[in-house]
């Protein structure tokens, strides 16, 4: 095939000018685009407000589709449950028997805890939960890992609030629109979470790798203390995430770095909980009451 | 009666509406960009950028349809839908369209394979550029290897998308 007819308009002056003008517009627009990105380097959420238009428009579609597929997406689990259902049933029953005793013990401990706190006159209200919502879509074609939440500014969601599921931490709110908000997932390469090992408090930093795994770097010098199977929970440092939210499990150790996988899979969880930032919960507005903010160091805020 | 299996019967002297002629390509590109509204919570960049694929398909199928500035509004819409910083696709798509214009001037022969080659280069440029912009706007240390699989199957998907575009195009120009 010969090449398509040339776009050069020949001797027609008007057509020549029109073609030239189109290139001028294109180059100017591209320069404006570049300028917007330069602005975004310094203020990543600055122009994200424009996104409110499309976010609000596509929200009903995404919510409807999500409702439709939420039953379908777990179908493999349902089918897998039939496999060896009998032996599994027996094993699970034994597990329940064993767990029942533990639960009773834990309840007693909790009661004792409450009694001791009362003796010490410590007030420990858990006013951190804000609301429960669903993740409806995500930035599936981009290198960044954002998920869209079905609740926004009008529901009280603010940028910086941590988002968690029952299984573990999901991420934190990045930007909000009236009825939706973008959640920066744990696995985004721009997300940094201060964590500690659950059983012995070895502190570390969990950074997303962008492909669903987490890069965990120990804060202590010397040999890498982690080994596969270690459970990591948030440490509460930085003032964003509550302490003791499960984050990840270590699967591989490679020199200085340990690789982990998040415990909560955002594509599997049904609903997520938006919490108030830890610092807001533990610091009280009135200066008279001494705040129990030893765990929160505001200078060390975990923002990228 | 005319054969009832013929859905569209072209008639002489009738023209398709202007909306169909000009609007359908724009709408297909915007629908391609809107794929991110599907309720998929992706853990890694897996979804091919369908907006870019449709734009390239229309540009290579119908060189006379759009001028290079069409990359600005369509790119802005794509930025609003994808998680990329605003301005990323605006810049990359426009530059890519100007680049395709320049390449077309220099090529003597064009066929399906050359189109695929041009599209392949354009996809690599746009996705690597998008990765770079994501990186400098707070994305942290993102490696090129992360989007390599996505690049690969986006290039493989191009012939399919171009065929769908051709099918839509046949309907578009038929009265």
TrEMBL record, chain A:
UniProtKB keywords: Cell shape, Membrane, Transmembrane, Transmembrane helix
Positions of region (Disordered): 285-304
Rod shape-determining protein MreC beta-barrel core domain ranges (all copies): 136-255
The keyword Transmembrane is annotated on this UniProt entry: yes
Transmembrane segments: 20-42
Low complexity bias spans: 289-304
Protein name stated in the entry: Cell shape-determining protein MreC
Species annotation: Sphingobium xenophagum
Automatic annotation (TrEMBL), chain B:
Membrane topology value: Multi-pass membrane protein
A Gene Ontology term for the protein's cellular component: plasma membrane
Recorded superkingdom: Bacteria
Transmembrane segments: 21-42, 86-104, 116-136, 142-162
Keywords: Cell membrane, Cell shape, Membrane, Transmembrane, Transmembrane helix
Subcellular location: Cell membrane
GO process terms (BP): regulation of cell shape
Record carries keyword Metal-binding: no
Keyword Coiled coil listed: no
Broad class of the protein's primary localization: membrane
Family assignment from sequence similarity: Belongs to the MreD family.
Protein name: Rod shape-determining protein MreD
Provenance organism: Sphingobium xenophagum
